[in-house]
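Standup notes
- DV: blocked on the single-chain target, sequence here:
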Amino acid sequence: MKNFIITILVLGLIGVGIYFLVKKLPTDVETTQPQNTEQTEETQNVVVDESKTVIGQSVEAREITAYHYLPTQAGGTGETEILFVGGIHGGYSWNTSLVAYEMMDYLETNPDIIPNNVKVTIVPVLNPDGLNKVVGTTTDADHFTKADVSSSQITLTSGRFNAHEVDLNRNFDCDWQPRGLWQTTSVSGGSKQFSEPESLAIKNYIETSKPDAVVVWYSAAGGVFSSSCGDGILAETSAITNAYAKASGYKEYASFDFYPTTGDMVNWLAKMKIPAISVLLTNHSDVEWEQNRKGMEALLKLYAN
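- DV (later): unblocked, structure below
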C-alpha cells in the first residue's frame, strides 16, 4: 500500500509538471519567433511638433530639419508657405547656414512681422555631413560661429559634398548628368536624379508641402538669380527675384550662367512650377544678414494678403 501511494504521488507530480510545461510552451514559442526588423522606406516628414519637421537624414544619419514660423495674429492661417534653404553645399558654404540661423533667431524675437496668411519654413542645413567636416557640428541648437570653421582650404572644399562625395546641387531633376561642373572642376551628380538622401528629403518635403516660393542660399558671387528649366522664367519668379534684389541691394540676374550647371535645385523647382530663386552671398565668410533680412521682409510683404 505504501509503495502504491508513493507511485500515485510521483505520477501526480509528473502530471502537474507536464501541465505547466505545456501551458507555458506557446508563450515561449511566441517570444522566440524572429522579430520583424524590416524598416519602412518612408522616413521623411516626421513632425516633431508644430514648430519643426524632420524631413530626412543624411548619408551619415544626421537629421535634416525644417523649422516653421507661423503668424501670431488671431485667426492667422499660414496658408502661404515661403521656404528658405541653407547649407546645400555644407561646409564649403557654411555662411549660408549662419544666414539661416540669423533668420531663425530674428523670427523668434520678431514674430509679428509674419503676415497673417504666411508661414515661413527654414531648412538651415541641407548637407549636414558636409558641414560637419568643416565645423565639427551640425546640431542646429549649437549655432556654430566663425571660430568653429576650419581654416584648411582642403577641408573647406571637401565640405561642399555629402558623404558619398556627391555635389547635392547637381543631383536634382533638371538637365541632370552623372558628372557636372563646379567652375572648371568635374563633380559627381550622383548615380541618378535624387540618388542622395539629402536631395530626396527636400524633394519629398516640397512635393508634400507645396511651398508657394523658395529661396536657396549659396556662396559666393553676390546676386539674386531667377530659376528656369528650359521653359522660360515664371512670372512670379521674376517678381520675387526683383523684390529680393531691390530690397537687399544684391544685383539681379535672369539666370546663373557663369558656367553650365546641371541637376540644379532651383531649376528643378522651376520645372515643378514653383517660383524659386538662388541668393548668392558675396563671399564665403560674411553672413550679410542685414541685406538678407531686407530681402526676406520684402518677400513677406509681397505674399501678404
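- Follow-up: The chain has two domains: 1-34, 46-303.
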